[in-house]
């Protein structure tokens, strides 16, 4: 969990610095890291919790479909979760959080 959080902090910081460089509004990397930690800890924590859970559900759904599971109700519930949850939480939303200063769930919907 800690490594996932750190990876997401770095991804958000790099996307923020890169976006501002594209706009020719340069920002110091240390300042971007400080902003990421001070202002976006909630977004990063939310994503760090939900993204591994979604990955687990999608892996479980893929393995059930490969095995041709006999429990169709469980399979259909997992597949609904696999298809619906990425609309609200995905790993690319950190780029939108860093670049556009959005909250995590609206950024996930936009990606």
Overall morphology: elongated
C-alpha Rg (nearest Å)? 17 Å
Topology order in helix (H) and strand (E) letters: HHHHHH
Q: State the helical fraction.
A: over 70%
| N/C terminus separation | 24 Å
Number of strands: 0
Instruction: Give the strand content.
Output: under 5%
Give the rounded overall mean pLDDT: 79
Number of domains: 1
- The assigned structural class equals mainly alpha
Largest sheet: none
Uncertain regions spanning at least 5 consecutive residues: none
DSSP summary: helix tally: 6
List keywords for this structure.
111 residues, mainly alpha
What does the model show?
By secondary structure, this protein is mainly alpha-helical. The protein has one domain. The model has no long low-confidence stretch (mean pLDDT 79). The two termini are 24 Å apart. It contains six helices and no strands.
What is shown here, in short?
By secondary structure, the protein is mainly alpha-helical. Helix content is 78%, strand content 0%. The chain has one domain (2-100).
Secondary-structure blueprint of this entry?
Blueprint: H1 2-22, H2 29-39, H3 41-67, H4 72-84, H5 93-100, H6 104-110
């Amino acid at each position: 969990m800690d490594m996932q959080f750190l990876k997401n902090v770095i991804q958000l910081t790099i996307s923020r610095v890169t976006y501002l460089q594209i706009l020719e509004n340069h920002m110091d990397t240390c300042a971007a890291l400080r902003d990421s930690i001070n202002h976006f800890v909630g977004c990063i924590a939310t994503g760090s919790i939900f993204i591994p859970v979604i990955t687990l559900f999608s892996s479980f759904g893929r393995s059930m479909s490969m095995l041709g599971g006999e429990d169709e109700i469980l399979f259909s519930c997992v597949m609904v979760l696999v298809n619906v949850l990425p609309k609200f939480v995905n790993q690319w939303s950190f780029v939108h959080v860093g670049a556009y200063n959005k909250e995590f769930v609206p950024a996930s919907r936009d990606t």
